Structures are given as structure tokens and as C-alpha cells.
Amino acid sequence: MIIQSMHTKFNGVVRLGHLGVIRVDGTDAASFLHGQLTQDFSALGLSEARLAAYCSAQGRMLASFYGLKRSQTEVLLICSGDLLTQTVQRLSRFVLRAKVKLTDASTDFNVVGLAGDALEAFANGNQATWSKQDRGDASLVFLYPADGVRRALWLAPVTQAMPAGACLSADDWALSEVRSGVAMISAATAEAFVPQMLNYESVGGVNFKKGCYPGQEVIARSQFRGTLKRRAFAAHCEAAVRAGDEVFQDADPQQPCGMVAQAAVAANGGFDAIVSLQIAAAQVGGLHLGSAAGPALTVAAVPYPLLADI
User: What pTM, to 2 d.p., does this model score?
Assistant: First the structure.
């Protein structure tokens, strides 16, 4: 079962000021990122994008990105703006002798969300998720759909005009992110999840065939030794929900069984969310927000198959 939305349709254009842009520049840009992130950047083509995570040695996600190449020597990483500065600083420590430089390029680019008819009028063809189209200096990155509606990020220098289209509110875009089932890491959830706890292995966020990167052993062990006990689920609550909120179960009121990864105001009242939960707790139910006596939380499947089901 998937929690149903009363939203008529996600449609329009909105500037996404909560996202920041990291420029990774130099002849070793792709190979450097290949050794630091969960996805394959060495093989990244100019017509592709990547969903990727940067993890601690313990396999916990410090940040997540939409990554794309602007040229063979320049990669841009789009991430939550509240993590950008510390992420640049941390990654820069490992540059060593690599010919690469990381900088905050957020003031150089506009990141814009397009959905529905606004995207259909702008895009060429029915592009697959994580594909990229270039329009001069601008790029379209195609994301997972929300409630069957196609979505994309438009990234371009600030000197370029935004694509035309109806105005989509920031709240509606936030809801479309949640309804897509693909959560991005923010300051409220940094170091809370191994990638599989957010289903990243099932939505193109982890490459198990690439070489080593921070946390790789933990992530691989979780995948192949059957130790993964948490997954991401769709959720709804009538009370306000925020990223980082803990989830409790009636059967074990002392210990949280999960955490909210991302949340937004639902179209039909209350809040929709992506919640990382113990699989057993999600199956049993009796879930509550904040404490075992808190507001009830309803969970259901995400709107895509998990890797084990493919």
C-alpha cells in the first residue's frame, strides 16, 4: 500500500534556495569524487547525473548530492545548503596531491525545480531518471517522479533567466520530494543513516562494483551479509513532523525504532514524510512521533521497488 495524496498535480517552476552548489574543479575532479562518494564518478558521462552520499568511516551519511559534469574537468554537487560549508571543508582535507579544488559555487548558480507541464514544455523527450540534458550553460537533471508526475532540477548560471512556467510553491516542491520517496540528507539527519536505511541502493545512490570510499566496508556488509534492519518508508501524521524527529513503537516505548528523514505539509492536512524504520516495527505498526504517547504515525511502502524486489 502507498499512502495516497489528494494533491491535484505538481506543476510549475520554483527556485530552490535551500540547496547549495559545490564546484569540484580540476583534471582529477571525477577520480577524486570516485574515491570519496558512494557512486561511480569516473564513468560519469556528460548526459548523466548521479545520486550519491558522502559517508563517515562508520558508513553514516554526512551529506548527499545530485552530481553532474559540466565538462571533463568540472563536476557540480547539489546538496542541502546547511551542510555545504562543512562538507567542502571535510572533503578538502583529502585532496592531498590530487589536481582538484572544491569551492562553494552557490552564488554562481540558480537551482530550480520543474514539475509537470512546466517540465514537459521544457524537456526534450521522455528522459530517464538521473539522466541530464544540457542547454548551453544550463543543465536539466531528471529526478524520481512524485505521484506519477515527472520532476527535474534546472541548474544554470545566475545570469540566465529561469525557465517559464506556472509558479510552484516551495511547500509543494518539498511535498513532491517527500512523495518521490528519495530523501536527501540535511543538518538535522547528518550521520543518522547508512545509505540503505534510506533505500539509496534501490534508487541509484550506491554502486557496489566501484572501488573503496569512506564507509564502503560497512555499507557492503549491510547489503550482502543480511545485517540491514532498517528501511525507508512513506509516512503520514496529523501532527507537525520535522526531519530528525524520532519514532517510537507501542511494544518498546523506551527506545526509538526510527527517525524522520524528510517531511512536508501534506495536501490533505497533516504531514507526509519519509521515515527510516526498523523493518519489524514497520510491519507490526503502533507507531508514534516523538514518544510512545505521541501522535500516531501511519506508514506504507515507498513508490518504487527495493533492490531485493527487482
Answer: 0.94
